[in-house]
Amino acid sequence: MDALSDLLRVLRFSGGVFLESRFRAPWCVWSQIRPEDCGQPAGAEVVMIGFHYILDGEMQFRVGKEAARTALPGQMILVPHNECHFLGSDVSLPALEARPLVRKANDQEMAQIDHGSGDRVLNHFVCGYLTMAAPRHPVLEALPPVLLADVRGQSCADWAESSFRYAAREHATRRPGSQEILARLSELLFVEAVREHIERLPDDATGWLAALRDPALARALAALHVQPAHPWTTEGLASQACLSRSAFAERFSGKLGMPPMSYLTQWRMLLASRRLRESSETIAQIASTVGYESESTFSRAFAREMGVAPGAWRKCRA
Q1: How many CB atoms lie within 10 A of CB 68?
Q2: What b/e sequence results for 264-273 when a residue is b if at least 16 CB atoms lie within 10 Å of its CB, and e otherwise?
Q3: Which of 3, 42, 44, 214 has the highest Cβ tally under 10 A?
Q4: Can you tell me the distance from the alpha carbon of 76 to that of 93, in angstroms, rounded to the nearest whole number?
């Protein structure tokens, strides 16, 4: 398995579609996902990724003061850090807040926006989310404020188009299993957007995603991810990369912004946080699984990386 797939495997997404939007006139709104949109209590500490899948009509989007970009039918706008973002037929227009325009959902239908006058719908899209419990993750931290996933021409294009249209038309989110299908579809499109972003990175880019484009570093990352409990050293990882110790350490730190052993600790703690959340293993068992012989040593390392002790992490995410 490649290093990107290893890291994405730890994310454990959940998600779905919560809003259908139709705009009938020149328009611009600003929006930001809230925990309650994702079925979470207000103020919940959860990582949220917002998305908008375009069904009909060309539209613009931007985050902050970035230049406006255009999205077409069959494309998905993703906001990896859930920042306030702007959508519209023209995002230079004065922006309304999207939330007051929403007609609340009932037991039979999805929440909706139907805004503007006239018979012709200018833009039609569905809004959704992906959530994850891990507070830190190299993939998310390395992503830009907004991504555009282009489904057109991909093998999943027909599936994506039919699924999102079905959700909008038949309110499929209320049907058994449909939210799970939409979550998996959204996750697939997120992964494709990340892969597209990696392919477009310049040769001199730094960061975790840029490291995947370096064959030597990718080999070392893959080995580290497959065997997290192995007693890795910088020399051992350099051997996997087919580089000298000094050349590997310099290249690794230059691309990822941290020494190899610091990265190893972060990866182990991400794996441990997932096992604490999803398994009934003891803390000692989890410590051994991620390469620590001593529970106390593991607990100290976990608290440094995650901000709380393993037991407290498990309790607050039960």
Answers
A1: 12
A2: bbbbbbbbbb
A3: 3
A4: 22
Tokens at 59, concatenated: 């539209």
pLDDT tens sequence across 38-94? 777 766 667 889 999 999 999 999 998 889 999 999 999 999 999 999 999 999 999
Residue 205 CB coordination number (10 Å): 14
Please report which residue ranges of the chain form alpha helices under DSSP H. Answer: 3-11, 138-142, 157-170, 178-200, 208-211, 215-226, 234-241, 245-256, 260-278, 283-289, 295-306, 310-316
Tell me the two tokens of residue 250: 């310099």
CA dihedral 199, 205, 209, 213 (to 10 degrees): 60
Q: What would the DSSP string read from start to end of 38-92?
A: GTPPTT---EEEEEEEEEES-EEEEETTSPPEEE-TTEEEEETT---EEEES-TT
* Residue 52 token pair: 């908008």
Q: Phi/psi of residue 132, each to 5°? A: -150, 155
Among 253, 265, 194, 257, residue whose Cα is nearest residue 224: 265
> Per-residue pLDDT tens for 177-216?
566 777 777 887 888 888 888 888 888 888 888 888 888 9
Predicted local distance difference test score (pLDDT) of residue 283? 96
Distance in angstroms (rounded) separating the CA atoms of residues 257 and 155: 36
Q: Give backbone dihedrals phi and psi of 60, rounded to 5 degrees, phi first.
A: -105, 160
Q: Does the pTM exceed 0.85?
A: no
- Say how far apart CA 187 and CA 12 lie, in whole Å: 9
Q: 247 and 28 in contact (C-beta within 8 Å)?
A: no
- Amino acid letter, residue 41: P
3 state DSSP class of 195: helix
* For helices 3-11 and 178-200, angle between their N-to-C axes, nearest 10 degrees: 150
